[in-house]
């Protein structure tokens, strides 16, 4: 039986607790938050054994095997390091760390201690994302990706998270190097990082404040981002983040030498794009019929999953958590290779350096290969 602890008892912690409950062979032995009331409310609403407002006390008294870190990103590095040094495997919510060098250090510590780590890139483990991965690995693209397009939008409303962000000039998100972008874009960037083979891809980024936000008097929050990513062998990618474009897409498109694929996260669908064209006017008739058939097939598949109760909003999180636990119990590879975690952090570092115009933090004196044995 794996003993699980959750550190940080805000909104996202509820999702973790709910998904952990769905997994056999584990139990939540403790939760922790520096605000004791927050820890207590989570403890009262889920089958949790104890609650704390001190991390060191939790680690000593509850002795968890795995710690889920669901605090604001600024604290991810220090809390994860403390948990690793106490002998815990660690699941860290996105973004994994604030800087690339912090990610490298945590993974080096985990490797040295024989512990396992994963990042909260659960969107990569939704039903549609897993199917896309299977198709790519089976060779549907005709080789490695030639080009990718990742869209990850966010609708800024006036309530909840967005309301607090817009109305509170001291809100914790504003203190991140990348502001709003820093807390959101890792899902979309991680999709690209999975298929990048270079350790240091070139990144060109442009960010700006939308006219909508400017009309409200906002002068700090960048809510529009366009990025071009390329590597030496010729693979390229575009990443788009927007709070204004409609529809607000959550898509990933990948094109190979023979065919392409389109993942739509909101509709939970995969569409195959045939690379070879038909002759003459047949091209105007057959492809639309093929796309219609795929849409119907996707709809039927989703209905079946829904009836099987395997279509909940956080199915990707459940799959990732369960896979991570299995890697611990069976001592098998982690679900997200460490190089992908570092590449995601690397790309984000470069984006925020360019968007904010700040100097880059010093990197730890180790290469990607030496960090990820």
Give the topology, please.
Layout: E1 2-7, H1 11-21, E2 26-32, H2 36-45, E3 50-52, H3 55-61, E4 66-69, H4 76-85, E5 89-92, H5 100-113, E6 117-119, H6 127-137, E7 147-152, H7 160-167, H8 179-184, H9 186-193, E8 202-208, H10 211-215, E9 224-230, E10 236-242, E11 250-255, E12 260-264, E13 269-273, H11 286-307, H12 315-330, H13 338-356, H14 368-371
Helix pairs in contact: 1-12, 4-5, 5-13, 9-13
What would you say this structure looks like, in words?
- With 373 residues, the chain is an alpha/beta fold.
- It has a domain at 124-307: Dihydrodipicolinate Reductase, domain 2.
- Helix content is 40%, strand content 19%.
- The protein has helices spanning 11-21, 36-45, 55-61, 76-85, 100-113, 127-137, 160-167, 179-184, 186-193, 211-215, 286-307, 315-330, 338-356, 368-371, and strands at 2-7, 26-32, 50-52, 66-69, 89-92, 117-119, 147-152, 202-208, 224-230, 236-242, 250-255, 260-264, 269-273.
- The chain has a seven-stranded mixed sheet.
- It is globular, with a radius of gyration of 21 Å.
- Mean pLDDT is 91; it is low at 358-373.
């Amino acid at each position: 039986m794996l003993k699980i602890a959750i550190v940080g008892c805000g909104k996202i912690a509820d999702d973790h607790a709910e998904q952990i409950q769905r997994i056999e062979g584990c139990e939540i032995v403790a939760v922790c938050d520096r605000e004791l009331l927050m820890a207590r409310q989570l403890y009262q609403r889920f089958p949790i054994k104890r609650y704390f407002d001190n991390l060191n006390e939790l680690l000593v008294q509850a002795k968890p095997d795995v710690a889920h870190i669901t605090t604001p990103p600024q604290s991810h590095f220090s809390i994860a390091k403390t948990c690793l040094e106490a002998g815990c495997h660690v699941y860290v919510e996105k973004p994994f760390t604030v800087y690339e060098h912090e990610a490298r250090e945590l993974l080096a510590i985990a490797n040295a201690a024989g512990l396992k780590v994963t990042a909260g890139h659960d969107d990569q483990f939704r039903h549609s994302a897993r199917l896309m991965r299977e198709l790519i690995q089976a060779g549907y693209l005709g080789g490695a990706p030639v080009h990718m397009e990742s869209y990850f939008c966010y609708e800024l409303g006036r309530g909840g998270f967005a309301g607090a962000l817009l109305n509170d000039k001291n809100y914790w998100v504003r203190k991140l190097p990348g502001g709003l972008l820093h807390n959101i874009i890792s899902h979309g960037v991680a999709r690209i990082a999975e298929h990048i083979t270079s350790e240091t891809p070139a990144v060109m980024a442009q960010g700006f404040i939308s006219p909508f936000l400017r009309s409200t008097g906002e002068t700090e929050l960048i809510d529009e981002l366009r990025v071009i990513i390329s590597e030496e062998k010729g693979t390229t990618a575009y990443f788009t983040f927007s709070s204004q474009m409609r529809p607000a897409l959550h898509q990933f498109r990948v094109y190979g030498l023979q065919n392409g694929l389109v993942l739509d996260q909101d509709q939970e669908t995969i569409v195959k794009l045939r690379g070879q064209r038909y002759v003459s006017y047949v091209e105007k008739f057959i492809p639309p019929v093929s796309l219609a058939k795929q849409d119907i097939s996707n709809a039927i598949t989703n209905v079946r999953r829904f009836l099987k109760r395997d279509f909940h909003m956080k199915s990707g999180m459940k799959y990732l958590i369960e896979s991570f636990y299995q890697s611990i119990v069976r001592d098998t590879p982690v679900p997200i290779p460490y190089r992908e975690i570092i590449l995601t952090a690397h790309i984000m570092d470069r984006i925020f350096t360019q968007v904010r115009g700040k100097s880059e933090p010093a990197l730890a004196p180790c290469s990607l290969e030496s960090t990820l044995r």
